[in-house]
TrEMBL record:
Keyword field: Coiled coil
Protein's name according to its UniProt entry: Hemerythrin-like domain-containing protein
Keyword hit for Coiled coil: yes
Source superkingdom: Bacteria
Pfam families for the chain: Hemerythrin
Parts forming coiled coils: 109-143
Annotated organism of origin: Paraburkholderia bryophila
Residue ranges annotated for the Hemerythrin-like domain, each copy included: 51-183
A GO CC annotation given for this chain: plasma membrane
Record's keyword annotation contains Transcription regulation: no
Amino acid sequence: MRDAFSGFTLVISDHRPARGRRCIHGARGAAKTTQRSSPMTAWARTDGCSIIIKEHQQLTTVIGAMLQFVHRREQAGASPAFVIFRAMLYYIREYPERVHHPKEERYLFARLRARTSEINDVLDELNRQHAEGEVRVRSLEHSLTRYELVGDAALEDFRRKVERYADFYANHRRIEEEVVLPVALRVLTREDWAEIDAAFGANRDPFEGVEVEEDLDKLFCMISNIASQVSR
């Protein structure tokens, strides 16, 4: 999966160049945005949409690396230091659960509820999943601690929980990108997006300015390198 940012053109789960005014390419095909000029032209101003999708991809990258680390441990009998797992869980806990999800609920979901009731049930389910995600992350932290203390006897339980979290988040992301964002692009006004843009533009990455393998960029580089080694 990749995100391609050229202006406000985005491609998700699609290796072809983005064309026209598409927002999301999902498993069920491209979800095309409306071309009407009211309440707003789909790609006239969507900084918030871009940031939301970018943050989804960052979390997907971290979760994918955790999966590969666990599988590497099972297959090769070696794994990266536990501090790397801890750094990833810190990212999942601090950024999505305490910054990204609350802002989705307070700004994106709230503005959607004010403009339409067509996906209220979906938004209710996503709110529930946000709360469930926090519980799952705590469970992952507990399982990792047990793995550190007990050793390989606790590896299978940790692997299962990482896999379940990966499946859980993949489904959560799919709903937001294939259902919620296309509706948002269709019904929200310029004023709505201005508020959402400002909220998400102010997000602070918990690794910003903090040395964890020097900085976040190097952490992702390290993850990518290990992932490529595992796939060989």
